[in-house]
Design a protein that fits this description.
The protein is of the alpha/beta class and 225 residues long. Helix content is 42%, strand content 12%. α2 crosses α3 and α5 runs parallel beside α9.
Length: 225
């Protein structure tokens, strides 16, 4: 990436970009009889989070997650207990980081980038999922959409991070494995870097902005930056 266009702040998505949602597969296999339902659940959760924001409403991501799980249990015709929901909630808060994440973050920090996170997940009274994954030491701040009562890719979430850090939006780059996230950030004036985790790829539409950087993982991202 040309030095003139290089950002000073890297804003990281958390779920799936840093933390591995595939770790939830055993729970979905036990409840639904199909570990692959984890992808269906996550897709539905993102769909309804966007719907909630577009409708001018709000409920926190954890509450919405439980409701989507209950909705899915209805149309999959499986029984889901409070214990199942609680176990899944604990598993979601303690997902491990992808194997490349710590090395990639260390490389980026060593090269002088300011690192922060922006997640749909609400703040926790105790440790955050980033804390539980052993990554909190890399980040200057952990931002949640909850303070603005809207979900990504609402533009005020991205510009709000820049404002709170005291930098122009153009000095920030959103790092995510979700094309809808990088698109939202780019529409708000940030740069965008897409991490092509399995199941994620660029959205190749000529009329839409493409990621400024496409990387296979965070080590590759650090090398390109």
């Amino acid at each position: 990436m040309p030095a003139a266009n290089r950002p000073s702040v890297l804003v990281f998505d958390v779920n799936e970009t840093l933390l591995d949602i595939e770790a939830l597969r055993p729970h979905f296999h036990r409840i639904f009889g199909d570990a692959g339902v984890v992808r269906e659940w996550y897709g539905q959760l993102i769909l309804y989070s966007m719907t909630v924001t577009m409708s001018g409403r709000y409920t926190d991501f954890s509450t919405l997650s439980r409701a989507v799980l209950q909705m899915m249990s209805d149309f999959h015709h499986v029984s889901m207990t409070d214990e199942d929901l609680n176990d899944l909630g604990t598993a979601i808060r303690t997902m491990p980081a992808h194997g490349d994440v710590a090395d990639g973050l260390r490389m980026l920090a060593d090269n002088g980038y300011r690192l922060v996170t922006l997640t749909n997940s609400p703040p926790h009274a105790g440790a955050t999922p980033v804390d539980n994954a052993g990554l909190s030491g890399f980040f200057e701040r952990q931002f949640s959409v909850d303070s603005q009562r809207a979900f990504k890719p609402a533009p005020q979430l991205y510009t709000g991070v820049a404002t709170q850090l005291g930098v122009p939006a153009s000095d920030c780059m959103m790092i995510s494995c979700h094309a809808w996230d990088t698109l939202g950030a780019q529409a708000a004036g940030l740069a965008g870097a897409l991490i092509t985790r399995p199941g994620n790829a660029p959205l190749a539409v000529p009329a839409l902005p493409q990621p400024d950087v496409i990387a296979t993982d965070l080590v590759d991202l650090a090398s390109q930056l």
